[in-house]
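Handout, page 2. Input:
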Amino acid sequence: MSLFIGIDSGTQSVKAVVLDLETRQVVAEARAPHTLIAGLPVGHMEQHPQEWTAAMDTVIKVVVAKVDAKRVQGIGVSGQQHGFVPLDAQGRVIRPAKLWCDTSTTAECMLLTRKIGGEKAAIRRAGLAFLPGYTAPKILWLKRHEPANYKKLRHVLLPHDYLNFHLTGNYFMEPGDASGTALLDVRRRTWSSAAIAAVDQNLAEWLPPLGDSGGIAGTLTAERAADYGLSTDVIVSAGGGDNMMGAIGTGNVSPGVVTASFGTSGTIYAFAKKPVVDPTGEIAAFCASTGGWLPLLCTMNVTTVTEQVRALFGQDHAALNAAVAAVPAGAGGLVLLPYLAGERTPNVPAGSGTLLGLTPATFNAGHIARAAMEGVTLGMNYGLRRLAALGVKAKEIRVTGGGAKSAVWRQIMADVFGVPVVAMVEDEGAALGGAIQAAWALARQTKPKAAITEFTEGFVAVNATSRCTPQKGNVARYRELQALQDKLSLNLREVFPLQRRLAG
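Output:
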């Protein structure tokens, strides 16, 4: 039976899994790190795309060496959303990629919003407001700040599209990841002429063609196939953004399932058969990479916060979890507003991390660590409540990412969200989703009506032993903390820009 490789290229590393279609098991895994560019001004977050391709090459060769290479029939790529990879006419990278967490484009967002006729007009025309995380303002930033580089621009790709290009030599984009550019009309799954014109009319020529999310981007080039020890017949599926692939990897491909990812960033999303457009623009009206739509909230600061706290106090993960477990829910009134890199939901790009409630009793590692876990979870709950207001209500939440591995954190999640949470058997949801999508895409070449559910059912499973249910007393406590954190965020928004200027 066939093997399929799933790739997840994140902010910190690239992961690979190999899915055996017969046993429905992951039979090989590998991981390789990459780094952010250091020393950039506050708000600027960039990476060299060549690091992504080098890491992907490494992990593919590692997993292929562990299996029968002749059985590998497809590769599916998941990548961090919203990043801007600028290429010249020859397909060469012009400058480092600006990432999803780059908040340097606030001025560009304001310009684009004015050009299109205001935020309500942007949402009416394309379904999304212009936010700093999205790709469109990054393109305008290049135009305004680096005109020499902009003059070279001939191809605009997202991170996962660039990895597909590396594998196949083809320029290709699919509606799921494309919806995170703020250039797509998400209702119609076509490029928005109004959004494009707000950036640059020439941009229409530089965007790749939109293909079917259930289709293929191409097959391996001869160079890549030889390097990996694979056949040039190996297909590369459309792929998608990490949230879209995570939805597949958690079985979130039909209404009724809600997924929360506690990784570098935090996301909560649910499949919908119709577009779910938020008139406030806080919930992203994304398309799914399986057909349908994927309304999603995103916060920018999750495990980056807990990891910095862990490093600050010299703890390993076991010590961090033990310290948190030893402190009661609510951390003695200590509240951490976790906006270390600004924030996206709510939209506070100039925000910074803030601790409220330090006393002699709370000024210690355990209380600060618990406040960190609670703070990022309350931040995600801000968006979950907005999703509920739009009709997307959770009865249970499937959790993935590094945070989902912590039992004490899962209990905090259940208490904050007010519904049970459960982790997955395979915690590399985006990579697994890539492998499943590749299997689906290949099947559709001979069976066009094959449903994605034929591949998620039996391949995706929850870890029943990980389930946590809300504790009534803690739920009430976190409702009070939620109100406090919301007020703190709102009241500091006039202060944050001043603090950022002082930070240089």
